[in-house]
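Just curious: can you write a single protein's sequence together with how it folds?
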Amino acid sequence: MPSLADYNRLSQDELISGIYDNIITESELAPFLQFSGHEGNAFLYDRESTLPTSATTTVGATLTDATMTTTQTSRSLAQLYVQIPLNQFALQTKGNVNDQKALHLAKMAKSLSRKLEDLLITGDPGSNAEEPEGLTSLLIADSRLLMADDGSTPSTITGAETELTADRLDAMIDLVEQGKPDFLMMNKTMRRKVTSLARATGSGIVLNSSEMFGHQYVMYNGIPIVINDYITNAETYENTSGWPSSTATTIYAVKTGEEKQGWTIKHNGAVMTPEVQDIGIKFDKNERLYRMIVYLNSYLPSKLSCAGLAGIDSAA
């Protein structure tokens, strides 16, 4: 619960930026995310396993039937929440300049949005069943991480960190099929390394910039670079024994949205503007409890829509 000193401070300074912070103005990733509503608490999806076999024939020949197969996968929605008790005395007596309730609800929304952006990358239900599936975990399951040291795409991630090269980066981008990815996602350390590669004489890398969604994005050969600082520089790829004392990080190439069979957030109820639950007055304190909660998980309709370059040495 906030202290009376917190309420005093917030009461004295006008909330210049407005009541609710807009997540899209803060996050470079948020404008690219694609959401799909769902009514239940879990969902099933089918993935193409094998296509029907095409063949050639001649006049009068007997034709052979072909079949296709799919694999069905289920995923449960995770629950992300934040709640805070607000003192009724402070709400009533310290709201002369700012609406104390609105101030705290705005910060709750900001906290929830940051937790969501974190877990969309790092979520690992294999280690914590309560977490949604993060992009790293999804790519590991599909063997879609190209290793920076040897160019392999192993199902069990092992190896050693190595310096970023343009050849490896381009090879990873080429793993995404049916056109260019919507964006490359990396942390600021990797953006500096990409910039350094572009400065090298004869690199062939074209870096320019473009304004989209109110942000200025650097473009790598025409692909926007999205900065996400929840991508760690000490990645273990769910395999701490394989990556001890890691300085590894990852660059992702991503398509989003079900129409592209790309990375999609399934949710029940509102996400970007989460519902505010007024729980009511606590029976033993002069506090009113407020909660925000969202129900969601992420999935890849097709593994060919996303890839990652893993094991890049962030310290080199």
Q: What stands out?
A: The chain has a mean pLDDT of 82. DSSP finds seven helices and 14 strands in the chain.
